[in-house]
Design brief:
Elements lengths: L5 E9 L7 E12 L3 H9 L1 H7 L10 E4 L6 E10 L2 E15 L3 E10 L2 E15 L2 E12 L8 H23 L15
Antiparallel strand pairs: 1-2, 2-8, 3-4, 4-5, 5-6, 6-7, 7-8
Helix pairs in contact: 1-2, 1-3, 2-3
Length: 190
Amino acid sequence: MSAGNIDHATADTSPGDENTPVRHGSFELRVDIEAPPERVFAAFAEPDLRTRWFKLPGPSRTAEHELDFRVGGGERARNRVLSEDMDERVEYRSRFVDLEPAERLVYVYEAFVNDVRHWVSLVTIRLAAQDGGTRLDWIEQYTYLVLTGPDGEQDFAHIRGATRLLLNGLRRVAEETPQWSPAGLRDPEN
């Protein structure tokens, strides 16, 4: 099973104000998960499963999470990152555009640091049954509005690396959820 490979990655500078460059890019990751597509989809849809793998930087005690998993609904996560030389508030806001159970998720999200929108992404996730498990394809198109460095390369590496970490957590949760059922109900005798 692969942990995730970048099949395609691009980054282009958009025309605009030289003082506020906007950078666009995209990447794709593929992950094989030893769980059926229905269980992988449930790991996105069920709040108790979702919060086991979807986390923002910072301590758990300061994390906040809201999930309204339906087309037109969204997700909001907030946390605070504290260290000797840093005090940042991070926030994630998304809106679900298309949800096909056990097949596809499409959503847009915004990432904020200290109340400033840093980037916006369109994400398409495809799930396909394979050999008793699931092949997950993650396709993300992003627009950086605030760059950390002069060329944005650090930002692009961050978004790809953070997505790999999330997918590793998703795989772990989907593969370790023995009392799951397609209806999202658990058998009280098991």
